[in-house]
Design goal:
Protein name: EGF-like domain-containing protein
Distance between the termini: 51 Å
Shape: elongated
Largest sheet: 3 strands, antiparallel
Strand content: over 45%
Order of helices and strands: EEEEEHEEEEEEEE
Structural class: mainly beta
Domain EGF-like: 11-44
Oligomer: single chain
Disulfide bonds: 34-43
Organism: Nephila pilipes (Giant wood spider)
Helix content: under 10%
Number of strands: 13
Keywords: Disulfide bond, EGF-like domain
Number of helices: 1
Length: 126
């Protein structure tokens, strides 16, 4: 855990910490205790979104955010795209309406619903 002591960061109600950070009060003022992977006075910086694996997420059309439950950064690429962990950016990736697309080791992988199979990169009924 990283402490970021700053007076009045959390204001009077002590609830301004972001990304799952916990606000604390002591005689010096209010401060946030950040979850792993976040920093800043209010835990507003998601480290992997700034200078880590997801630094090109936004520039490639994605939204980089912090998953509080999993305590890590994620890049949400949106419909028809997936994150390529080799190129570290969102890329076109579509398997049709009956499948989810992933990019593994630079290759498109379709995970199709039951009763559907990957035929030439599109999930179709079998």
């Amino acid at each position: 855990k990283v402490l970021h002591p700053t007076k009045n960061v959390c204001r009077n109600e002590c609830n301004d910490c972001e990304n799952g950070g916990m606000c604390h009060q002591d005689e010096a003022g209010n401060f946030c205790t950040c979850l792993p992977g976040t920093s800043g006075h209010r835990c507003e910086i998601v480290n992997d979104c700034v200078d880590g694996i997801y630094r090109d997420c936004k520039s490639s059309g994605g939204t980089c955010t912090y998953n509080v439950a999993q305590k890590n950064a994620v890049c949400l690429c949106g419909q028809g795209k997936a994150f390529d962990f080799i190129e570290n950016r969102c890329k076109e990736c579509d398997c049709g309406t009956h499948g989810n697309c992933e990019i593994r080791q630079g290759s498109k992988i379709c995970k199709c619903e039951d009763k559907y199979e990957d035929k030439d990169g599109i999930c179709t009924s079998n």
